[in-house]
Structures are given as C-alpha cells and as structure tokens.
Amino acid sequence: MDIRRRNNVNVTGRDDAPVLLLAHGFGCDQNMWRLVVPALAERYRVVLFDYVGSGGSDLSAWSEERYASLHGYAADVVDVCEELDVRQAVFVGHSVSAMVGVLAAQAAPERIGALVMVTPSPCYIDDEGYRGGFSTADIDELLDSLEANYLGWSSAMAPVIMGNPERPELGRELTNSFCATDPDMARVFARTTFLTDSREDLKSVSVPTLVLDCEQDAIAPREVGAYVHAAIPSSHLVTLAATGHCPQLSAPEATAEAILDFLESRQ
Amino acid sequence: MKPLTIDHRSTATGPVLRVAGDLDFDQAPELRRRIGLLPLAPGQCLVLDLSGLEFCDSSGITALLAARQHALAAEADAVLAAVPANLLRVLTLVGLDQVFTLRPYSDPAS
Amino acid sequence: MCRAGGVPDPAGNGAGMDAAFTALLEDSAEDLYESAPCGYLSTMMDGTIAKINATLLDWLGLEREAVVGHRRFADLLTVGGRLYHETHFAPLLRMQGELRGVALEMRRQGGGRLPVLVSAVVKHGTGGEPLLIRTTVFDASDRRSYEEELLRRRKEAERVRAEAEQARVEAEQARVEAERARAEAERARAEAERAHAEADEARRQAEADRTRLAAALAVLQQSLVPDSLPAVPGLETAVHYHTAAPDQLGGDFYDLFPVAGGRWAFFLGDVCGKGPEAASLTSLTRYTLRAAAHHDPEPASALATLNAVLHDRYTAGGDPRYCTCVIGVVEPGGEHGSVTVRIASGGHPPALVLRSDGSAEYLPTPGGLLVGILPGAPIGTAETVLAPGDTLVLYTDGLTEARTGPGRDDLYGEDALRAFGAGHAPAGPREVITALTGLLESFGEGLDDDTALLALGVPAAPSPTRPTTSPTS
C-alpha cells in the first residue's frame, strides 16, 4: 500500500534536520499548519499528512471499524513514520490529535521522541472533578447538528471562496479540504473525537512534552491544559496570549516560537 | 423351502451327519461341500441320519451318491439311516436301495 | 446623519407619498441600527461583545446588560456553531479581515436554535492594527427550513431510490434464482428423460436378450427332443411334453427312430438336476442312446453303453450325474399287426400298458438302477406284445410325483395312474395322451416338475398308417 498517497504525505524543510510530524485535528487537514510551517521548516524537517477520511487522503482506504477509534488514527501516524523511516520524531498534534500522538508513542516508542500538544483535550465532556468544556447534552447537540445539518456546514464554507480576495488559494484549499470530507467519515471522526475519554492514556507519556493552550479557548478551556500538564510529569505548559482553539492560525508566530523554544531547550 | 441343517457327530466307528430340512437343487451343494471336508479313515463308516429330511429331489440324491463315493474313495463305508418313507420309495424306484446300505436307525451300534 | 441629503422625491407629488417619505427621512440612525431587520454586533478582537442591536437581542431573548462586556460572540453560538467558529470562522476572519454569508447557529435563551447567516468585517485602526469586529446576523430560519426540506427531500429521494434499487436487486436475485431453479428443473427433467430413455433402452435390451435367449433355448430344447415324431408303419404314436419353467431347459427327454432290421427304437427319461448342466447331460444321453441303439438294437445293451459313458464322463471324476431311462425296441411283423416290444430300464418308473380289453397293467422292470452311478449297473428288462388296440405309455415321474390333495402333500402315485389308465382303456395313443394332458392340467400348481409322455400302440382295426402327432406343448 502506498502510505504516502493514502495519507497525502508532504515533506518540507531541511533534509538533515530532526523531524517534526504535524498532525491536524477534527474537521481540518494539514492546511491548518500553513502559517507555522515556514518558521518550523527553517530549522527542521517538517512532515505533513492527512488522516484517512480527511483532506486529500485516499478515501477508499477508509473503514469505519478502523477509524471509529483513536487507535486507528494512531496507526496512520505509525504507518507514516515507518514509511519515511522516521525515528525520534517530534509529534505536534492539534486538539484531538494530541491524544493520537500519545497513542502512537505507546504503539511505536522508537518513532516518537517528543510531543507537542496544541490545545489538547483528553476528554471534551465534563466529569466529576474534571471540566472538559462540554456537557453530555452539548455533545449530543453537536453530533445531532452534524447529523442533521451537514448541508448547512458544507454550504457554510462556500462564501469563503468568494470573500477571500487577498489569499484566494488559502480559502480555496480550506474549503476544498472541508468539502471533500465525506459526511459519513466526518461523523465517525466527530463521534470518536468528542466521545473518547483518553485521560488514562496520559499516564503512559514519558517523553518530553510541550502543552500549548490559549488564554481564551471555547473548545478546550484552560483547566484542560492544566489537567494535561499535571498528568504528564515530563511536560511543560505554555499558555499563549491568544484566543480561540487554533493558535497556529490565530497566533502563528507565537505558536511557532513556543514550539521552537521547546525544541531548542531540549538540545 | 425349509433350511437345511447338518449336525456332525463323531463316534467310534466314524462320523454321523444328521441331515434335516430340504435337500433340493439350492441346498444340496452345501451337503456335498460338508461331506467333501469330512476326514474319513479306511474302515470307518459314514452315517447319514436322514430322519429329519423333509424333501429330497434328484439333486439331493446326487449329494447322497457323492457321499457314498467319497466314503468309497477313502476305503470307508457309507450308510443311510432312518430314511423317510417317501425317499425310500424313490430310492427303491430307481434301484438305489441296492446301492446304499440302509439302516432303520442312526446308532451305529444298532 | 439625519436627513442626509440628496434623496430624490420618487413621486414628486401626492400627499400620502409625502407623509411616508417624511417618516423615512425622520428615521434616526440609532433607530436604523437598533431596529434594523438584521442583527448587528461589534466585538473586541478577542470576541468580547461591545455593542449589539435590539433586533439580535430580541431574537436571542437576551438583555443588553447581561451581554455587553460579559459575553463573547462564540458564547452566543450553539456547540456546533462554536466549534466551527473556533476552528474556521475566527482564524479565517483574522487572516482575511472579512467573511460573508457563513451559516452558523445561535442559541436562543430558554432553548431553541436560530439558524443564521453571518458576515463580519475587521475594523482596523489608522496604523492598520485590528481594532474590532463588526458582524451582521441574518435570520436564516426560512433558508434553513428550505435547506432542511431540500435535505429531507434529497434523503427521501435517496431512500426511495435505494429502496427501488434494493427492490430491483431483489427482483434480479429472484429472477436469477428462478432462472437457476428453472435450469435445475430443466436439468432434472432432462436427466429423468435420459434415465427414462436408458431404462427403456435397457428394457428393450433385456426384452431382446430374453427373446434371443428364448429362441436359443427353443433351438436347444429341440435338440433334446425331436420337434416331430417320424411316421411308424403299423403303429400310432403320440407325445406330450410339459415344461415346468418356460424359460428353463427341461430335464426330460424322449426319442423315436428306426434301427436296423425294420425295427424301431424309442426311449424316454429324466436327467438329474436342471438348467444348462442338465441340458448337456440330456444331449450326451440322447445321442449316446441313438448311436448305441444303431450299433446294437438290444435295449439293455444300449442302456449299458449309456451307463458306461455317463459313469466315465461324470461319476468316476467325483461329479455324480445320472438319469433314469427306459429304452425299447419295437419288432413288427406279429400276427394281425401285433408287435413285440422289448424294454430295458434304469431306475425309471414302470411303463403302463392299456389293453384292448379295457385293463391297464404295469410292465415292471425290477432291478434296474439309475444310469451312470455305478460301473456295470444292473438293468431291468421286460418284454410284451402289443396286439391291436393295446397302447404302451411311457412317462417321467413328474406325473406320478405330482402333488395332489387339499394341502398338496399327497403324491399322485402309480396306483392312481393305473386306475386312470384302466378308466380310459381301451384307448389309442392320441386318446391316452389327450387324457393324460388333461390330467396334468388338473394338477395345477401340484405339477412342479417337467413331464414327458410317450405313447405308442397298434391300431385297434387294421388300417393304413396314420400320421403321427406333434408335441402338444
């Protein structure tokens, strides 16, 4: 099987440098990293990919059985590492992907040497003594809206193409990425993302880890970042002066700088 | 058709075969086979006790003749004992009463 | 900003139109903002709401004081809307400075969702730095309903199409199944026809085999008994042959033939066993007797020759085979046409003589033994004269051994036969044979053996030679 084609693998940056593996979260694809890639590529070899079922991946390789669990997405990460023969890579995962990185490091410890968790959440639903940011009812509503209003979601992006005179290629790619996603696959990813409780898996992390959260994040509140940091003894927490759940888009310079600082400090 | 039964008994003077049932075209070969396997010493007497014989046709008579011949070949004698009246009539008719030694009883002592 | 000039009078005259136009001109900018048919809100760059119009507050059921300075735009959205806002809307707006017509969902106070289309623009300061975000919100309920209806109809259409496809597939499967079953049935039918044809062929073959075998048996049977008796001057003859099993060769035999010196020889007998082995024995017996009778017309001599031949051929080798037989020679030339008959018998039932005076008597041949079991076996002989009206009857034991009585456990016997003969005497050979044939028929199932009958006699009154009869069987 051609893993590069299956996961739409793109490699950039310095050939001789350590590898940064950038993994997108739910509802997006590798374009989410577009604004931070130039700064990271100056010093590192940057590997970008799409999970099967997202972006430019080979949708024919998708199976509900495999991708109804975060382990299926972690298997994609391991496949990409083996295909490129990557060792001791720095895995940079956004949102739910941060937890995928934890599972990949469990499955193939020789492949993952460090973790950067960008606005991670091991569990989106509030629990006793834990604030994930959403009630069970919220998640049900979210899944319902995905279920019932997919037309609205996809059509919501259509105007972006026309309203993007300055950087049309960005809008088009984002739109294409979103629109290309098969509704059934997106629903499975959403269920997997929002219904999985991976808090126990945090205990397994022993590699150096950077936890990045934002001052204002409507998806993963700061309590979650603190929780992740507390659960991983080898972690370092940086709170970006940024709003939103996607600092790599809303504050790309600060995000890249935090990642680079973390990497430099390891050397 | 009554099944043919052949009981073998050894006595001081020789073997006694009690032949009962129907001695016909289908069953007579069995008597010939049994007699052919019978060891006979010179001077012995083979007794065929026919008291239980229900029917005997020409194939049966052939078997009796074969028994006689087998005995003679071994320098022994053959005796028909307790021959039923019907068979005796037929034997007489065809002259075999002169050929076979006939006895009223199978006991060699009598 | 009131009365911002330059608005032309669309009609130019008419008091009613003037009043409306006046009201329009007097509409304040503040009122235009607050009561616009769309929602307006302005936020700080972090989303905190700084200004919101009454229309939007009204749609969402919110109080201005609870919102301004306290809530961010994302807080007004449903969870799905918020997720989309965080992952797409806000980053894109920040990058592009403008977004138009994005579909989101807002949360109404007290439950319920408001589908909206949102446009936003970032207002920049004089130095180009982003200052705040201006957002317009259009009620997209109707559009959403329309979309939902479209979606519903599309799903319905897809469902119907899927059902139709499913029905088509099922129909196709049923058709294939039916075709398969039809082919199966056709195959089974062809198979059955083939088997039927094979069975027919086998039956035809078996029939042909049986016919051929019957023909062969008939030919063979004729070699064992003559198909007709020769005419004998001064004698009348008759014969009957009853075969117990039509498909099996008979074990009885007879013959009548001329020998040297104007004499005639005849014989009749019964070989042991049945089937092909009996037939071969019969054949040997018949031709031995014919040859021996030619060589030496004395009946006892011919029988002795037969005895020696059978004994050498079979019994001496440990395979006893034998026959009963009566053979005779007719010496013509007696007074008034009478003939002298000399007979020899080996183990055969005695001949019966029906006299012209109405009596019947046996012609005993005592001492005769089965032919072929002992070398030099004793042979019984007898002699008699047949005067005109006398008839000599030879028979095999099928006649006297026939089972009679209610239980079929009595034998017909020699006494009954003699009485039967006496009852018919005097009688010529054909008359006797006819009577005896009737007797055999009367035995029915009781007659289970082959039976041969041969009668010869001197006609009661001198007469020309009569033709002989053929076997009646």
Q: Could you walk me through the main structural features you see in this protein, from its secondary elements to its overall organization?
A:
The complex is a heterotrimer of chains A (267), B (110) and C (473). Chain A has helices spanning 3-6, 37-41, 64-67, 70-84, 96-107, 136-148, 150-162, 168-180, 183-195, 222-231, 247-250, 252-266, and strands at residues 10-13, 19-23, 45-49, 89-94, 112-118, 209-216, 235-243. With 267 residues, chain A is an alpha/beta fold. Chain A has one domain: Alpha/Beta hydrolase fold, catalytic domain (Rossmann fold), CATH 3.40.50. With 110 residues, chain B is α/β, with parallel strands linked by helices. In chain B, helix 1 packs parallel to helix 2. The model of chain B has no long low-confidence stretch (mean pLDDT 88). Chain B is globular. Chain B has three helices and five strands, in the order E-E-H-E-H-E-H-E. Chain C has three domains: 27-139, Beta-Lactamase; 156-209; 222-457, 4-Layer Sandwich (Phosphatase 2c, domain 1), CATH 3.60.40.10. With 473 residues, chain C is of the alpha+beta class. Chain C has helices spanning 15-26, 29-34, 54-60, 64-67, 79-96, 141-224, 275-295, 299-313, 397-400, 413-424, 429-443, and strands at residues 39-44, 49-52, 98-107, 113-124, 130-139, 236-242, 252-259, 263-271, 323-331, 339-346, 351-354, 360-363, 380-386, 391-395, 403-404, 410-411, 451-457. In chain C, the strands form four sheets. In chain C, strands 2-1-5-4-3 form a five-stranded antiparallel β-sheet, with helices on both faces. Chain C has a five-stranded antiparallel β-sheet with strand order 6-17-14-11-12. A five-stranded antiparallel β-sheet of chain C has the order 7-8-9-10-13. Classes of the chains: A alpha/beta (267), B alpha/beta (110), C alpha+beta (473). At the A-C interface, helix 6, helix 7 and helix 8 of A face helix 5, strand 3 and helix 6 of C.
In short:
Chain B: Residues 16-110 form the STAS domain. The complex is a heterotrimer of chains A (267), B (110) and C (473). Chain A has 267 residues and is an alpha/beta fold.
